[in-house]
Amino acid sequence: VAFSPDGALLASCGDDSSVRFWNTSDGSEAALLAEHTAEVNAVAFNHDGTLLASRGQDKKIILWDVEKFQAVAGMAKHKDAISGMKFSPVANRLASCSWDSQIIVWKLPSGESDKMLKGHKGALLCIALSEDGKFIASGGWDKLVKLWETGNANNCGTFSGHPNRIGARAF
Prior knowledge:
It contains no helices and 16 strands. By secondary structure, the chain is mainly beta.
């Protein structure tokens, strides 16, 4: 579930392959969107609340226009389940990670892939973007946290020490 930045809408997703928008003022359903073909795992609003991204077991991210409740882009370059996604707080970009051990940075609203970051050995489980949008952090089954420069896609740091997989991260 995710609240819109102004708090007027709540977005939810579920096993029924749908994304639903709810009016927080009265609890009524504002829209039911059904473009995924498998369970939807997560939803997230961009910084100004004009876009919502949903990710599913169908290996796709769908970008939704919140005002029109319509899909504006389908992003399907991951080869396995998408395990994380975050909007850049300062640029028209979305970063996603997958069990395919890749990070993809997407241009918005077109949904075109901008950069692919590779370097982990094994499934990725989480991703974070710094508040200034300059760095991406990732973690997964290889027990490593990697730091990436968003602009040039360089791996600028690898942090080890966890005895097990990395399941959460934050800047």
